[in-house]
Design goal:
Largest sheet: 4 strands, antiparallel
Strand content: over 45%
Structural class: mainly beta
Distance between the termini: 27 Å
Number of strands: 8
Radius of gyration: 12 Å
Order of helices and strands: EEEEEEEE
């Protein structure tokens, strides 16, 4: 069985249940996350999608403010 990830705050309170396959490091604009269907998008610190998970691939950029998402 696959292990899923959630988000907890600094006090240890659950922000969102374990519903993500992967969650990247949070930057100013959010974090890249992968849903249970394997699609990528961007979430905010509350676990809400700011860019819906419709992308198949993510590439890292030297500038952490830039995200390349590919369908």
């Amino acid at each position: 069985k696959e292990k899923l990830l959630g988000i907890v705050d600094r006090e240890g309170d659950v922000v969102t249940e374990a519903i993500f396959q992967t969650i990247g490091e949070f930057q100013a604009g959010g974090a890249i996350a992968q849903n249970q269907q394997g699609k990528f998008g961007v979430i905010d610190k509350n676990g809400r999608w700011t860019i819906e998970p419709t992308f198949d691939q993510v590439l890292a950029c030297p500038d952490p403010a830039v995200v390349q998402l590919f369908k």
